[in-house]
Amino acid sequence: MAPLEPWEKVLVDAEAFPATAHGEISCLVCHEGVQDPDKEVAHTSLVALPSEESEKYCSECHPVISNMFPDSLHAQQTGYWTTLDARSTPENHPEIEEMFGNHCQSCHTTCGDCHVSRPRSAEGGFISGHVFEKTPSMTNNCTACHGSRVGNEYLGKNEGIKSDIHFRQGRMKCTDCHTSHEMHGQTTGCSYCHAELPESEHLPPDHRYDDNDLNFPACEACHWEAAKGQDEIKMHSAHEEDTLACEVCHSASYTSCDSCHVQISEETGNPYFTTEGHYLTFMIGHNPIQSEQKPYEYVTLRHIPVDKDAYEFYGEDLLPNFDALPTWAYTTPHNTQRVAPQAESCNSCHGNADIFLTADKVIAEEVNANQPVIVDSVPPVVK
Amino acid sequence: MTKKIRIIIFILTMFALSLFGCTGATSVPEIPTEEPTEEAAPAPKLAAVVDAVEPNYCLDCHADKERLVKTGEPIVEVKSESEGAG
Question: Which of B61, B62, B75 has the highest number of chain A CBs within 10 A, making it the mutation to test binding with A?
Fold first, then answer.
């Protein structure tokens, strides 16, 4: 995505914006500053990104969402901390926190990053002349951050692999599956907004596959007959229920990455990263996070770019519990195909050692970490 | 019709009009009604809403491409030192 010109980033649509609800509010209510024709004076005490403090600037009109959002994964990046805490120790927290602030926190998201501008990690800029968009733009917002894996898969940007059928044929956007409840962090009970629903309480999710988040997207929500083996497709009833995640049959190859290391540049003082590998894989393994909502025995796995020495710039041995989590992680590739290569016939999968994560495919330093997901033997050929 | 009669008619007409004009100002006691009266619209919660009369210097500038180009900060190109996919 090409960056916007500096003027383009802050150009307000003088016709469209004043006609909106936000356009009826004085600029100073959200941005502070001073009404003055001189730029320097006008920008005195300017708050460029008011939704960084959503409780102060957004909550008067949007109290429910402003109350929930600070606990959301987009705001807190709790998923990062869940894995960092598992692999690290409390004694290493100061160094890990410093690393997190320098490198990971740039992905922290505010209301404005989805509804007004491109996210800051994509260099910002209004998406519709400062008109607040209720539904974020797939390309300007969602894949601006989630681009190198999910975006490329969904939009078919990996060479030789078709885009996701939900996009190709259904023209579905991210928000068709990832609802506002999920995005805003549904921590209060449903009855908080929907008085007719029974009272309930959800804890903030620990990561995006957390069962506590009741609003995660599920294939079964639309394709429940297929999931139960109750449709006309024989393959759907060939395996016992909950043996295979949908992606095992319906995903094409997707991106894995190796060895991300982070540092601060001696030359410029800026943070930077280096990843050593970025390649297409398709790998089936055991489900490391089996649960009521994800009961499958076999799932697709993606190699994530974590490394024992990933944060060595900040201190020695900061991940002493490196083996606590697999480096081949549960994944839901976003390139769904009706008939993917491994599902063309029974023996496209059965007996096909290339697509199962057996121990010989895992590097020696990571074998222990991946014991929960490694498949002992490939399912035999079907005669 | 003579000029004199015309003047008399004009004076009488003006007199009649002035009487009608005063009628509207006459206070008539309001008959109490049991119909519910509408509540006054609540005052806007926000401290300030756009006043169409006041100048909006923010919008004047931020809707003017030429001014934004002129007053924009010079671009400082920061070359990313990162390597590989993020």
Answer: B62
